[in-house]
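Board notes (copied after class):
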Amino acid sequence: MKIRDITNYLESIAPSKLQESYDNAGLIVGNANTECTGVLVCLDSIEAVVDEAIARGVNLIVAHHPIVFSGLKRFNGKNYIERTVIKAIKNDIAIYAIHTNLDNVHKNGVNERICQRIGLENLSILAPKSGLIQKLITFCPIKKADDVRNAIFKAGGGKIANYDLCSFNVEGNGTFRGNELSDPYIGNKGEMHTEPEIRIEVLVPSYLSAKVISAMKDAHPYEEVAHYLNNVENKHQEIGSGMIGELKHPKDEINFLYHLKDRMQLKSLKYTALRKKDIKRVAVCGGSGSFLLNAAIAAQADIFITADYKYHQFFDADNRIIIADIGHYESECYTIQLLTELLIEKFSNFAVLSTEVNTNPVNYL
């Protein structure tokens, strides 16, 4: 099994094109064609984790956080980033990061795992992203419509929220005339040909459009396939930042905070003034999520759970919501468990290990 087999599977869950513009997810160190001896899953691929990979005999580290965010101009080992990269290269250890792309997906994403830990249901993306949906329109002979539609569906088109195989179809007649280089399918050259056709319209995630169009063309009987790809302004309800859900049974505020502390195994947590109101709707964002506060309030969340809040930002709760800062590492550490489970399920006869190194740079007294 090669490294690319592992990374391709991970990108089928969280495509790299879904990462934020500032991010550096993907294969950071290593060659995708290298035979993989095993995987070590971690949150932060620091030097101690590379040492662990060497000791445990695996040559691929799958991390949530990229060890490299911006370009490195020198490799002198002057900081932990350079030392990590140097050690990984010298020992043929590949490092792959699956970061904000994993934050931005609903199913099997970072925020879904937090919600599962807390016991939330009726989950949805807190701030769905726009600009990720396109409408594909094509035309094909009626007798080939099933083949073309199925190829589009198989490649990832035609999914709307909890539904798939979605398309809109209109029958009509297409006309065309071929020249001396055209496909013999059309009949006599030089004459206008009329063909009963179906107009097929399908919604396609923009990051899959090239794959869908290629599959459509492979299944289509015409040598020149008429098609249009239009941008759609609708927000993608399965892709975006944060998540919101509900408790099956409301809890009073203090009991919920203790529940949160227990389920996330926290040493401490910071929170704003209580509102003397039961907790029912809960918004979450793994990592630094202060940018989602207004979205959480607009969604009528009773509490917003995230990390990395600064002192003055806590005032922004303004008695409209409770902000609970549980710590960056603490909010995302169960991503290790998530990725390990996914990889073991997919590659059951392959060594997939969870790190034993606590990479949290913050200590508590």
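Comment from the instructor: The chain has three domains: 3-99+334-354, 110-127+240-331, 131-234. The chain has a mean pLDDT of 94.
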